[in-house]
Amino acid sequence: MKIISVSIYVLALVDTAVGFSSRLAHYFPSDVGVRSEHRWRVKYVNFEYGFSVIIPKGRVRTSPPTPWPQHGVKIQLTKDGDSFLLANADFSASDYSSLREVVDSDIKEAETSRSNLMVLGRRSERLGSLRAMLVILKYRDSKSGLTIVEVRVIGIRRHRNPEESVLYTLRLLTRQDRYHHDRRIFDQVLKSWRTRPMPK
């Protein structure tokens, strides 16, 4: 049986108006984070930011929400980690006036940090009950030389207090030769996304 490894990382929240890759550097480091023995095997539930997703078959390692916030889950699709999913949430939504502005900012940041970038698609989507936008990017990885495809679905959960508005992102990063296989897994996770009550 093929195992899909899923890891959840937590770090101190840094609220700043930066691009998606920069945001994720704070929340999903390659080898940093405090982990507990609690495991999510079927569904990942984020109580702090109010969302859940169904987890593909595999193991999940989590970190307790204290003393750091829990931002999301990273799902490894390959043993070497070069293909994965990220489900992420943070309070940076107040930095943007619209979903379009978030996507524009992420694409602009990608243009400065990736080689031969192409935007393959951009359209409206749903992230559970939320309006969202989907964007597909293709570029050449500068280290490996491989062609990479990224799919990002971004949604905003507005709050009467702007500082408590949440920016949600579901992201697939995979090699071009794995794209169709991994996209099916991504679509399953996307379909399972649910918003949940936020802490009061």
Structure, explained:
The protein contains three helices and eleven strands. With 200 residues, the chain is an alpha+beta fold. The chain is globular and about 45 Å long. The chain has a single domain (4-195), classed as 3-Layer(aba) Sandwich (Protein Transport Mog1p, Chain A). The N and C termini lie far apart (42 Å). β2 and β3 form a beta hairpin. The strands form two sheets. An eight-stranded mixed beta sheet has the order 4-1-5-6-10-9-8-7, sandwiched between helices. A three-stranded antiparallel beta sheet has the order 2-3-11.
* Order of strands across the main sheet: 4-1-5-6-10-9-8-7
Based on helices, strands and strand pairing, what is the structural class? alpha+beta
CATH superfamily: Mog1/PsbP, alpha/beta/alpha sandwich
> What's the structural domain tally?
1
Termini Cα gap: 42 Å
Tell me the series of helices and strands, N- to C-terminal.
EHEEEEEHEEEEHE
Tally of strands: 11
Helix content: 10-25%
Enumerate how many helices there are, as a single number.
3
The rough form would be described as globular
Low-confidence stretches: 1-38
Please state roughly what percent of the residues sit in beta strands, choosing from under 5%, 5-15%, 15-25%, 25-35%, 35-45% or over 45%.
Answer: 35-45%
Mean pLDDT, to the nearest integer, reads 79
* Radius of gyration over all CA atoms, rounded: 16 Å
- The name CATH uses for the topology is Protein Transport Mog1p, Chain A
Q: Characterize the biggest β-sheet.
A: 8 strands, mixed
What is the CATH C-level name? Alpha Beta
CATH architecture: 3-Layer(aba) Sandwich
